[in-house]
Amino acid sequence: MRNHVRNVIAQSRTARYLLRPMLASHLPLRAKLSIYKMYVRTRLTYAAPAWYALVSETGRKSLRAQQSLALRTISRAPRFVRNQVIARDLCMESLDEFIRRLSASMFARADGARAQHLRGIAPYHRRPPDVRGLPPDLLEF
Q1: C or N: which end of the chain has fewer Cβ atoms within 10 Å?
Q2: How many domains, the chain?
């Protein structure tokens, strides 16, 4: 998953770079947060319910850093202000919470679908504690 995380980070960096004039401008905070959610966070979380559980903690930390950099740019906070304080003041949920909510919504829609083949398509699996590979029940055919 390392290559995928690198690709996602590169895409979000590019979007952040291109949008920096707007994110660092004097627009209202609400407008800048909407721009971030539409253009940067969507790149960070595209299809995340499918792959985020397989990402290492280092990869997750890198993804969280991308959100923190964007929020710091939006708020124009100095370096000594903690990322958690910025996120709290902007009423922004963490990337992990957002992906968890996104996954729960997606799985609930799949379980409630009319099509029988979508129901129970992806049961929730935790990442194994040893982080060496996939859980054994995912490897069974």
Answers
A1: C
A2: 1
